[in-house]
Amino acid sequence: MTACKTSAPAAQEKPPLPAFDLEGHRGARGLMPENTIPAMRKAIDLGMTTLEMDAHITRDNQVVIAHDDFFNPLFALTPDGKEIPKEDAKKYALYQMDYAQIKTFDVGSRHYGNFPKQQKMKAHVPLLVDLIDSVQAYLKANNKPQVFYNIETKSKLAGDNKLHPDPENFVKLLMQVVEKKKITPWVIVQSFDPRTLQFMHQKHPHVRTSLLVENKKSLEENLKTLGYTPTIYSPNYKLVTAELVKKCHDLGMKVIPWTVNTTEEINQMKALGVDGIISDYPNLLATQQQ
Fold first, then answer.
1. Distance from C-alpha of 42 to C-alpha of 270, rounded to nearest angstrom
2. Residue 29: half-sphere exposure toward Cβ, Cα within 13 Å
3. Hey, how many other C-beta atoms are within 10 angstroms of the C-beta on 244?
4. Would you list the domain boundaries of the chain?
5. What confidence score (pLDDT) does residue 287 get?
6. What is any one GO biological process for this UniProt entry (predicted)?
7. Among 101, 139, 167, 243, which has the minimal tally of Cβ within 10 Å of its Cβ?
8. Is the pLDDT of residue 11 over 50?
9. Does the pLDDT value for residue 222 go beyond 70?
10. Could you give the residue ranges of the DSSP H alpha helices within the chain?
11. Which percentage of the chain shows pLDDT scores above 70?
């Protein structure tokens, strides 16, 4: 399929999701600084079919790729290379900063104890638009097949208009970038916040959505809250059972758990019949697929 090799993927048809979806969590968090362009390239190098990432909005309404509401004091450095004291972290809320300022922070040079294999390098929080451009160019230059983008909206009710826009404006800003870059068929929007998914479903019903789940409620309860059946049900891997997988499949949903970081856990998930895996260690997923 020639469309798979282009720098701007063909937007007419929605391609099928991978038979078994290999997702690099925050790119390749176990190996490279999370949610950075180098992490996405590493995931591509290791054969991932989907790049998983987190979206935030800046004060000047730019869509950036970052997980936390604030610069994380565990690994972020200020523009002058200093560590951020834990008690000062809330001074650095992304939604209260313009992108020009955000870009000057270093999120890759400092040792991150949770991920000792992570390669250290100077890295910054990227704009989604720049990340897409870089990924598409990298795919083309290396003759790699088109990947999917699984983008999480980092929002919750308590943070509205303090840590992020309201759901409607969050989705509007995100989809402006996605549509401008012509990658809509290759995008999945995921969230723990049912409000952003509900708005996606109303305004962009053609875009695939994924409900992230970490609560102990039943599948039925979570779908009732959401109000529709998403493309993907994405629970914490510890919540996955064969019964849950069967129920989801019967409803036409795929099951893609997070965050599965050991070979043993990967094998357990596969035995339960999941449709893909989100992992901090794409190298483990790559080994499994060989």
1. 23
2. 22
3. 20
4. 2-7+16-289
5. 83
6. lipid metabolic process
7. 243
8. no
9. yes
10. 37-45, 99-102, 128-141, 167-180, 194-203, 219-226, 242-250, 263-271, 282-289
11. 95
